[in-house]
Amino acid sequence: xxxxxxxxVIALGMSLPAKAQVSFGYDSxxxxxxxxxxxxxxxxxxxxLIGSQSGNDNPTTNYxxxxxxxxxxxxxxxxxxxxxxxxxxxxxxxxxEVGPVSVLPIAEMNMAFxxxxxxxxxxxxSGNRYxxxxxxxxxxxxxxxxxxxxxIPQIHKxxxxxxxxxxxxxxxxxxxxxxxxxTGSLATIRVNVFSATRYRSMDFxxxxxxxxxxxxxxxxxxxxxxxxxxxxxxxxRQGTNSWTFQAETDLSHQIGRREGDGWSVNVLDTxxxxxxxxxxxxxxxPGSRTxxxxxxxxxxxxxxxxxxxxxVFDAATGSIRxxxxxxxxxxxxxxxxxxxxxxxxxxxxxxxEFRTFWHGGSYVRQDYVRVR
Length: 372
Hints:
mainly beta, Beta-galactosidase, Chain A, domain 5, Jelly Rolls, 2 domains, 9-stranded antiparallel sheet, 1 helix, 31 strands, about 0% helix, about 55% strand
C-alpha cells in the first residue's frame, strides 16, 4: 500500500492544511516522493536499495528494490525489507534489511538517496576526511563543512545495453559515518544512521542524473544480512530560492568542450550553434525571476560585433520568455567572467531552457546560469 502523508498532520494531529510544508510518499519498495512547499526534491529511484553482483553499475543488470514486488529485488536479487514511518514534523524514519543472501555473493549493495541535481549543490557529513573515486589519498575535511558536488570529478562511465548514458564520480568516507546531508535551494536533507550491520561507508555521488547520498554495505556473502536503521530529516530553507546550472555538467551542448570550470568554444569552431541549452527544468518556482549567465571573452576591444544571444526558452510551449544580444564591447575585461541578466516570469508547467547561442568571432567560456 502506498502512503502520501503530510508530516505535520501525522505528528501534530492537525487537520490537513491547504499546503503542507513537507510531505512524504512511500511504499514497500522505496520513498518515491519528498515535497517541499509542493516541489518534488527526489529524482531517479527516490530512496531505495540498489546492488550489483559484479560491482559494475549497469542499469540493465543491477539489483533494485524499485519495480520489485517489495520482497525480492529485481533481476534475481536477494530478499529485502524496507519500512518507512513518519516520526514527527519533517522527519521520516526507516529500516532497510537485505538478505540473507541465498545463492551468490553480492559485491555492492547500497541504500541510495537520489536528489534532484538542480536543487542540491553541496554535501556535508560527520567525518573528517573523504576519498575521490576510490583514491587511497584522503582529502582532509572539517566535520560538517560544505563541499560542492560539482568538485567531484566524473570519471566513471555508466552504460545500458552498450550505450553510454553518462558519467559519474563519487566521494567516499571509507568509514561508517553517522550522518550525511545535502543542501540546496529548497532544503537541507540530513540522513542520520542510528544502528547498522555491515554498514561500510557513506558515498556522495556527482551523477549525470542526480546528486546523491548512499549508505554503502560491505560485500555480502551467502548467508549474510545487512541492516540499517535511521531517519531522513527535511529542513526547508527560508528566503528567495536559487538554482544554479553548471555549463559543463548540467546543460547540453551543440558545440565546444569542457575547459576548467566551464564550457568553451574558440574561433576554429563552427559558429551558429548553441554553446549551452537545456536543462528542460520544471523546478523553478513560479514568479518574477532573473537568469544570470556568467560568461567571458578573450578579446573585448577588437570590434563591437554581436558575439552571443542568450535566452530563456519554454520547451513546453515552444516560446521564448526573454532574449538578449551581447556584443563584444559589453564585456569590460578580457578573460574575466562577467554576469549578464535576463528577467522573466516563471509559471507552473514550464520546461525551461537557458540557452547561449554563439555567432562566432571570439573565444567564449561559460561558467553557469543562476536563477533567482
